[in-house]
Predict the 3D structure of the following.
Amino acid sequence: MRDSLFLKACRGEKTERPPIWVMRQAGRYLPEYREIRKGRTMLETIRNPELAAEITLQPIRRFGFDAAILFSDLTVPFTPMGAPFEIKEGVGPVIDHPVRTRTDLANLRRIHPHEDLPYVLEAIRILKRELSVPLIGFTGAPFTLASYLIEGGPSKDLKRTRQLMYSDPQFWHSLMELLADVVATYLESQVQAGADAVQVFDSWIGVLSEASYREYLLPHMRQIFTRLSLLSAPVIHFGTGTSALLKVMKEAGGDVIGVDWRISLTQAAHNIGSPTPLQGNLDPAILLSSPANIRQRSQEIIQEGRALRGHVFNLGHGIYPETPIENMEALVQTVKESAPIAAR
């Protein structure tokens, strides 16, 4: 796997074209996924290693992506932490008892993935016997995980989360310390089980300013990435709404910085200020348009990526469930047929 396009791009090495994978590539836009999910909840499916592995493989077989991402969810550590939840269709993770008081926090615990999440690690081991491309493991970042725990589920404004962060810094930093350990421990176990790379999803971090990130998150994020730097696997650091946060995200750590669609790769590289492999950043809504639009915009992104130290082609966030199969085919074909990248 070391010489794969994906891992070479993550290391900032020259590749003949950008590798491509997309977030949520194993999901509801695939008819074979919808078929396997019939009569099963999301968590039931995730907790079945054979099914999770099969779903992970589905988009690789159909499209030939350059990397696979494990079929799972950001929130699976919650139950072993002491915060039971369910994933409601059309809603997302819903926490049985939100974490909002010192007592709630005291009831949470660190995780032991080999004991608490064996099905995830078994799915990785199964996939490593089947895959011919690198496997990406993942989990959520502390802020994003905290937002679900505090809000009790998805939230548009994360008001409770930000209120608690600003009003009770001691509580906040204690929660961040715990979640940072959970994130690092969980990702370490995924790499030990065979994951070739891991991604830290900070899906909702864009609600914060750079100053707030530095004060309330940066020390904890550095702790995670310092631990992960000891592994043999590249680490992707991704968030949405992060145009103003890219520099501090790079300071926090990560071998590759994921970029959403709200900023160009060129401007993202300028904001970061140091040669860094980037991942992104097609607007997933473009995949709802026409193959011609998809080819034009993806070619523009590929051209921008040629100036980078390394470029992994991806969407700026997860694929929409209503994306037509033929549009994804057009995207993959465009990236795979892109002209060779000149030596940097």
Remarks:
- The chain has a mean pLDDT of 96.
- The chain has one domain: 5-336.
